[in-house]
Every structure is written in structure tokens, then in C-alpha cells.
Design a protein that fits this description.
Elements (H helix, E strand, L loop, with lengths): L1 H24 L10 E5 L4 E6 L7 E2 L6 E4 L6 E4 L9 E2 L3 E3 L7 E4 L1
Antiparallel strand pairs: 1-2, 1-4, 3-8, 4-7, 5-6, 5-8
Keywords: Signal
Length: 108
């Protein structure tokens, strides 16, 4: 009896996992991330999204510790000053870093 119940539980669990996975695969492309997205917790929690690059100096979210350039970006440059002056550090479009290390960025 216990074996049958355990087997049934395992089947239900796998069914739920498969249903969730197929739902993600069926998500339309328009619902996917675009632009540049900043995360905290090493890609765990989305903290900001920049939909299109402008090259303007922008404040970096203070809790951000990772980012992904989903589309429309060639490079992201970080600065330790709020006005994008001083030393520029090119970080690319996929990166992790220590939160609070930089305070502003430009994306092109």
C-alpha cells in the first residue's frame, strides 16, 4: 500500500514539473526579457530593466550584482561616480560583480 502511494505521489510530482516546463516553452517570445536587465542575488531577483540603449549616464541599482544584455546592446560600461566620470570599466553584456562597487553605467 505504501509503495503504491509513493509511486502515485512520484507520478503526480513529475506531471506537475512537466506541465510547468512545457508552459515555459510555450511562452510567446514577446513575453521574454529584452534590453538590459539587472539582478540581485546573482541573477535571482530582477531589480531593473533598461528596454533600449541610449548611451546616457544612468544610476546603477545599488543592490545589483549581475546583469544580462538580452538584446540591442553591444557593451555596458560601469563607473564608480554617479555622473559617469572618472575611470570607465567595460563589463560586457553578461556579468556578475560585487553589489555597490559601481554607481552608474552607460550602455550602447
Amino acid at each position: 500500500m505504501r509503495a503504491r502511494a509513493a509511486r502515485a505521489g512520484a507520478v503526480l510530482t513529475m506531471s506537475a514539473i512537466m506541465t510547468a516546463g512545457l508552459g515555459l516553452l510555450a511562452t510567446p517570445a514577446s513575453a521574454q526579457e529584452s534590453g538590459l536587465t539587472f539582478y540581485s542575488g546573482t541573477f535571482a531577483t530582477r531589480v531593473a530593466n533598461v528596454p533600449a540603449p541610449t548611451g546616457a549616464c544612468t544610476a546603477l541599482p545599488p543592490t545589483a550584482d549581475s546583469h544580462v544584455g538580452w538584446s540591442g546592446f553591444r557593451d555596458v560600461t560601469f563607473y564608480q561616480t554617479p555622473d559617469c566620470s572618472g575611470q570607465a570599466t567595460g563589463v560586457g553584456t553578461l556579468r556578475t560583480y560585487e553589489a555597490g562597487r559601481w554607481t552608474s553605467f552607460r550602455a550602447v
